[in-house]
Protein backbone atom coordinates (compact mmCIF):
# COMPACT_ATOMS: atom_id res chain seq x y z
CA UNK A 1 0.00 0.00 0.00
CA UNK A 2 1.26 3.44 -0.91
CA UNK A 3 -0.24 6.79 0.05
CA UNK A 4 1.30 9.68 -1.86
CA UNK A 5 0.51 13.08 -0.37
CA UNK A 6 1.05 16.41 -2.06
CA UNK A 7 -0.07 20.01 -1.94
CA UNK A 8 1.66 21.39 1.10
CA UNK A 9 3.48 24.69 1.10
CA UNK A 10 3.86 28.13 2.58
CA UNK A 11 0.78 30.31 2.88
CA UNK A 12 -0.15 33.48 4.71
CA UNK A 13 -2.68 33.69 7.50
CA UNK A 14 -6.17 33.51 6.06
CA UNK A 15 -5.03 31.75 2.93
CA UNK A 16 -6.01 28.39 1.51
CA UNK A 17 -4.33 25.17 0.46
CA UNK A 18 -5.59 21.86 -0.89
CA UNK A 19 -3.83 18.66 0.03
CA UNK A 20 -4.17 15.54 -2.11
CA UNK A 21 -3.37 11.93 -1.32
CA UNK A 22 -3.39 9.28 -4.00
CA UNK A 23 -3.61 5.70 -2.81
CA UNK A 24 -2.48 2.51 -4.48
CA UNK A 25 -2.30 -1.12 -3.45
CA UNK A 26 -5.70 -1.17 -1.76
CA UNK A 27 -9.36 -1.19 -2.76
CA UNK A 28 -9.68 2.53 -2.24
CA UNK A 29 -13.47 2.76 -2.23
CA UNK A 30 -13.68 0.31 0.67
CA UNK A 31 -11.34 2.21 2.96
CA UNK A 32 -11.77 5.13 5.31
CA UNK A 33 -9.24 7.84 4.52
CA UNK A 34 -8.02 10.74 6.53
CA UNK A 35 -5.47 13.35 7.43
CA UNK A 36 -3.39 13.66 10.57
CA UNK A 37 -0.97 16.41 11.46
CA UNK A 38 2.03 16.77 13.71
CA UNK A 39 3.52 20.04 14.84
CA UNK A 40 7.05 20.21 16.29
CA UNK A 41 7.13 18.83 19.80
CA UNK A 42 3.53 17.67 19.67
CA UNK A 43 1.70 14.41 19.09
CA UNK A 44 0.24 13.39 15.77
CA UNK A 45 -3.47 14.19 15.82
CA UNK A 46 -6.35 13.40 13.51
CA UNK A 47 -7.54 16.41 11.53
CA UNK A 48 -10.28 14.90 9.38
CA UNK A 49 -11.53 11.55 8.17
CA UNK A 50 -14.00 10.24 5.63
CA UNK A 51 -15.56 6.82 5.59
CA UNK A 52 -16.19 4.65 2.57
CA UNK A 53 -19.81 5.80 2.57
CA UNK A 54 -18.94 9.46 2.88
CA UNK A 55 -19.35 9.95 6.61
CA UNK A 56 -16.96 12.63 7.77
CA UNK A 57 -15.19 13.46 11.00
CA UNK A 58 -13.41 16.70 11.89
CA UNK A 59 -11.33 17.82 14.80
CA UNK A 60 -12.98 20.72 16.61
CA UNK A 61 -10.08 23.00 15.76
CA UNK A 62 -10.74 22.76 12.01
CA UNK A 63 -14.54 22.54 11.83
CA UNK A 64 -15.93 25.12 9.45
CA UNK A 65 -12.52 25.76 7.87
CA UNK A 66 -11.39 22.39 6.48
CA UNK A 67 -13.29 20.06 4.16
CA UNK A 68 -12.34 16.48 3.42
CA UNK A 69 -13.56 14.78 0.25
CA UNK A 70 -12.75 11.75 -1.84
CA UNK A 71 -12.81 10.77 -5.50
CA UNK A 72 -12.99 7.01 -5.69
CA UNK A 73 -12.46 7.02 -9.45
CA UNK A 74 -9.08 8.67 -8.90
CA UNK A 75 -8.17 6.82 -5.68
CA UNK A 76 -7.61 10.21 -4.13
CA UNK A 77 -8.62 11.96 -0.92
CA UNK A 78 -8.45 15.73 -0.57
CA UNK A 79 -8.25 18.19 2.28
CA UNK A 80 -9.36 21.70 1.43
CA UNK A 81 -8.00 24.07 4.05
CA UNK A 82 -9.40 27.59 4.22
CA UNK A 83 -8.83 30.49 6.58
CA UNK A 84 -5.52 29.01 7.66
CA UNK A 85 -4.03 30.01 11.00
CA UNK A 86 -0.46 29.86 12.33
CA UNK A 87 -1.50 26.99 14.60
CA UNK A 88 -2.30 24.92 11.50
CA UNK A 89 1.42 24.77 10.78
CA UNK A 90 2.45 21.12 10.84
CA UNK A 91 3.44 18.13 8.79
CA UNK A 92 0.27 16.61 7.40
CA UNK A 93 0.02 12.85 6.91
CA UNK A 94 -2.44 10.87 4.85
CA UNK A 95 -3.81 7.73 6.51
CA UNK A 96 -6.04 4.77 5.65
CA UNK A 97 -7.98 2.18 7.61
CA UNK A 98 -10.76 -0.34 6.87
CA UNK A 99 -13.34 1.72 8.77
CA UNK A 100 -13.60 5.25 10.13
CA UNK A 101 -13.50 4.11 13.76
CA UNK A 102 -10.13 2.48 13.18
CA UNK A 103 -8.87 5.50 11.25
CA UNK A 104 -9.68 7.67 14.26
CA UNK A 105 -7.76 5.40 16.64
CA UNK A 106 -4.96 3.55 14.87
CA UNK A 107 -4.73 3.79 11.08
CA UNK A 108 -3.37 0.78 9.24
CA UNK A 109 -1.44 2.72 6.62
CA UNK A 110 0.44 6.01 6.52
CA UNK A 111 1.74 8.17 3.74
CA UNK A 112 4.75 10.41 3.82
CA UNK A 113 4.15 13.84 5.27
CA UNK A 114 3.70 17.12 3.51
CA UNK A 115 4.68 20.34 5.24
CA UNK A 116 2.13 23.11 5.69
CA UNK A 117 3.46 26.40 7.01
CA UNK A 118 1.19 29.32 7.78
CA UNK A 119 3.04 32.58 8.18
CA UNK A 120 1.82 35.62 10.01
User: Could you list the spans in which at least 5 consecutive residues all have pLDDT below 50?
Assistant: none
* Silhouette: globular
Count of helical stretches: 1
Distance between the termini: 37 Å
Query: Which percent range describes the beta-strand content?
Result: over 45%
Q: What structural class do helix, strand and pairing data support?
A: mainly beta
Radius of gyration: 13 Å
The major β-sheet equals: 6 strands, mixed
Strand order of the largest sheet: 2-10-9-4-5-6
Order of helices and strands: EEEEEEEEEHE
Helix content: under 10%
Q: Can you give the mean pLDDT?
A: 97
**How many beta-strand elements?**
10
Description of the molecule:
This protein is mainly beta and 120 residues long. Helix content is 5%, strand content 53%. The protein contains one helix and ten strands; from the N terminus they run βββββββββαβ. Strands 2-10-9-4-5-6 form a six-stranded mixed beta sheet. The chain has a four-stranded antiparallel beta sheet with strand order 1-3-8-7, with no helix packed on it. The longest helix has 6 residues, at 100-105. It is globular and about 40 Å long. The mean pLDDT is 97.
